[in-house]
Amino acid sequence: MWRGDDRAEGGLMLKAEDLPPVWTALARMQGALPPAAAAPDPWALLQKGEEDRLIRAPGSRDSDAHPRFDTPVPPGGYSWWYVDALSNDGQHGLTLIAFIGSVFSPYFKRSGRDNPLDHCALNVALYGPKARWTMTERPEHAVKPEADQFAIGPSSVRWAGDCLVIDIEELDKRIMNPFRRRVAGQIKVWPEMLNTEAFALDPAGKHLWHCLAPRARISVEMKAPELSWKGSAYLDSNRGSESLEEGFRIWHWSRAHLGKHVAVFYEGQRRDGSTFASALRFDSAGVPHEADLPPTAPLPNTLWQMERVTRADRGHARVRRTWEDSPFYTRSTLHARLYGEPVVAMQETLSLDRFCNPIVQQLIPHRMPRARR
Predict the structure, then answer these.
(1) Are 346 and 320 in contact (CB under 8 A)?
(2) DSSP class of residue 295?
(3) What span, in angstroms and rounded, lies between the C-alpha atoms of 14 and 12?
(4) Is the omega angle on the peptide bond into residue 369 within 30 degrees of 0, that is, cis?
């Protein structure tokens, strides 16, 4: 969540010397940043059992198959709505995340997390040429979540009947550079399939994941920077009644389009030491079906020495491009084969142990400012 570094497989376009000395020193500091927790034993992850697989949330079949932004968020909890996308030509990518109870906010953490609505943000990450990254936290009086619309300062996210519309008016934030560039435009996401079922990531149901649109089309029309492209997308939502770091040590997630179907893999280690791993295959109607887990496929460590893994046939995948590389989070696109088909997959790794590190907590405000209005 630090920078969309536009690294391509076959050549490292971002070099260590391109970063400020304090960043490279911290990345290499012995013991200061713990490893991102090696992936749990793959054999343990393949065990069957309720606690080792995602659990269908009670009543989830009656869930709305589109975002609802007015669902109450309890003290200590969070909700977010997530979009990722790749352009048809493969040159551009993006992620958009709208937060209530911003899970990576040091301000929310320090506040005791009593009022999630006082810590909202829209994270916009544009990858590739003209890359931008912004995530400004907004207080309660500057946000308004309604059933089909969520205003976050001057930006908004709304459900327009058949598509999700994101109107963006933000300023980016760069380390060691006080000049903030405008990030403005409109993005539309049209689901090609909708799923009504949510899944619990833990036996107690404190953390829920709802893959709303496993496959979607996207149109990107940005005024600043000037960008226009179309591509394929994905839309989901997470919510919880406690912080992520209370529930988990690490997780790995990936998704890939398989013809008319979509495969999603979600695995990790909970804070109590138990592990979970699931493979879901969404059919052309958006209905999820459990699938066999392919073998674990290790991936190269990132510049910040994040250890990341995915799932792929024969346990082999290669990094196509690392879009985002931070001390505790990484996002990449991969080349792999899944269930016999060649795919381009989106993959993320999140280390909550690293997120909690005091050094990382001191760095985050330089990337994620908090607005007064």
Answers:
(1) no
(2) P
(3) 6
(4) no
**Coil, strand or helix at 252:** strand
Q: Where are the domains of the chain?
A: 7-366
Residues 94 and 220 sit within 8 Å (Cβ to Cβ): yes
In the block, tokens 């929310």 appear at: 108
Kindly report the CA angle at 144 between 138 and 146, in degrees rounded to 5? 145
pLDDT tens digit string along 167-197?
A: 999 999 887 788 999 999 999 999 999 999 9
**What are the structure tokens assigned to 8, written together?**
């391509």
Distance CA 219, CA 189 (A): 7
Angle at 328 between CA 79 and CA 78, to 5 degrees: 10
Amino acid found at 3: R
Q: How much is the pTM?
A: 0.88
Q: In this structure, what token pair is assigned to residue 276?
A: 């979970």
CA atoms of 303 and 93, how far apart (whole Å):
20
What class has domain 7-366? mainly beta
Q: Are 231 and 218 in contact (CB under 8 A)?
A: yes
Give me Rg for the CA atoms of the chain.
Answer: 19
Residue pLDDT, tens place only, 319-359 = 999 999 999 999 999 999 999 999 999 999 999 999 999 99
Among 224, 170, 166, smallest CA distance to 190 is for: 166
CB atoms within 10 A of CB 155: 23
